[in-house]
């Protein structure tokens, strides 16, 4: 059976239509939810103002006084960027024409600043960042991969020699 993996947002913010890709788990749940609906029928049968009111109501019930629909949009953008999504991709997902508009949504947390600087610390590298040493690569590329994977810091001198620091 064919299942769509995108959601069409009609007349969204700025009166724009756009396609939003969805994760596989959400696609499956949403597909079950809309199984008997017509293609032009509203998924949640709610207008934007009603959705906003429901979000505020649930937030207050959870003890969150300052949460609203726009906060969720901001959180979505920030989470994507903190997990490594490209800023231009986030711009398109949010439907912004100007990249500067997308940058306003970003929350730069103290932890994200520490994580960024930590990428330069060889001792802090996560195993996921390790490079697989491929025997089919040229020897010089294998050597670079070994240096990248090592726990030591190296300097390449002007004469091309490599020095361990």
Concise overview:
This protein has 165 residues and is mainly alpha-helical.
Which key terms come to mind for this protein?
165 residues, mainly alpha, two-stranded antiparallel sheet, 4 strands
How large is the share of residues in beta strands? 5-15%
* Biggest beta sheet summary: 2 strands, antiparallel
Class by helix and strand content?
mainly alpha
Computed over alpha carbons, the radius of gyration is: 23 Å
Average predicted local confidence, pLDDT: 77
| CA-based shape | elongated
Strands side by side in the biggest sheet: 1-2
Order of helices and strands: EEHHHHHHHEE
Low-pLDDT parts are: none
- Tally of distinct domains: 3
Assign a percent range to the helix content.
40-55%
Total count of strands = 4
* Oligomer status: single chain
Query: Whole-Å distance between the termini?
Result: 58 Å
Total helical elements: 7
